[in-house]
Amino acid sequence: MERLPRALPLPKGPGLVRPLACLRLLAPPLPLRHTMRIGEAVALPYYLLLSRSITHAQRMSGVLEAAGITARFFRPPIGLTDRSCGYAVRVNAPYLPAALERLRAAGMWPSKVFYQDGTGAFSEVSI
């Protein structure tokens, strides 16, 4: 990456204002960093809270959303549930303790909890 030449300092005094373009040239250069390309993805770890019905999943999602925790409900992947009517609520990994506390306070509890670490494999978590 080509670095821009450093500009000479502008004179200081009353009424003299440095334009924004000069401020950028005077700032120290930023270190090179990775830029994501089209088609490149980052898989973040998350938990699936399984419920016995769509109504239960909607209620769990509503409680979590009201608490400020993003929680979307959908049909779980095949093999995670033995019930045809089961639904899952997705919660990002850092928010699981707060989500379980909110659900416990609301009297709703998931039937099972699965962890997905970003590789595509699910593992059941005991709660």
Architecture overview:
The protein has 127 residues and is an alpha+beta fold. The protein is built from three helices and five strands. A five-stranded antiparallel sheet has the order 2-3-1-4-5, covered by helices on one side. A hairpin with a 5-residue loop joins β4 and β5 (122-125). The protein starts with 19 loop residues before the first helix and ends with a strand. The model has no long low-confidence stretch (mean pLDDT 81).
Summarize the topology.
Elements: H1 20-26, E1 46-51, H2 54-66, E2 72-74, E3 87-92, H3 96-106, E4 112-116, E5 122-125
Antiparallel strand pairs: 1-3, 1-4, 2-3, 4-5
Listing every helix as H and every strand as E from the N terminus to the C terminus, the arrangement reads HEHEEHEE
Q: Largest beta sheet: what is the strand line-up?
A: 2-3-1-4-5
Based on secondary structure, the structural category is alpha+beta
Overall pLDDT score? 81
Separate helix tally: 3
**Share of residues in helices:** 10-25%
Q: Quote the beta fraction.
A: 15-25%
Main sheet properties: 5 strands, antiparallel
Distance between the termini: 49 Å
Q: Radius of gyration in whole Å, from Cα?
A: 25 Å
Number of strands: 5
User: What global shape is seen?
Assistant: globular
Which regions contain 5 or more consecutive residues with pLDDT less than 50?
none
